[in-house]
Fold:
Amino acid sequence: MEKIIPFTNVKEAASSLDNGGRFYNLFTDANDGIITSAELAKAAGVFSNKQKMWLYFEMSTSALTSQAKNSIIQQLSEELRAEYINQNILHLLASQVKLKASASQSVIVTGIPKLIDSKSNLTAFIMIPIMTGNVTTFTMIPIFEEYDVYEMRDEESDEEIMIAHHRGNAKLPAKKISCGGVVKEFDKTEDGKKNSPKEIFLEVLYYAE
Structure:
């Protein structure tokens, strides 16, 4: 999980995003007026994770005016502009996530997070892959073994959504913030049976104050 400080103007955004890519991207040039996939991936700190890359783009440009953001979109390469048009990143209040989001979707949610103590009575299990040679199997583990977990609410409703980020990262501040991530599922029973109740949570990849 990384903190994003959104760009405040077109010049700042263009300078950061039109960066020439990494040293092995021989056919990209910094400040040439065209933002390529390699350049956007570098700015986002990823290599091939397109979902995370677009979350970074959406959150880093969130403070720009519509006109300024459109100026940056026009600097995207033709391929990237087509990708951006097909993105379905939802901007939601915490109280809207359960109603409007589904597993695997990219979501930016706004609200106030409250850390849940791992010793609480929350019972939640997630599926993680385990590699044995060339074989991948899956096992259920308590969510607290992998994540720091929060309840997030907004100022409009008492309805909350569970959000989480990998343990070892700094804790989220207990104030109104925006979190960008991917919706995932958890089970309320350890056996993960087909008839066990499933809930969703947001795996936080980026946040902005």
Observations:
- The radius of gyration is 19 Å.
- The longest helix spans residues 50-60.
- Residues 2-87 form one domain.
- The mean pLDDT is 92.
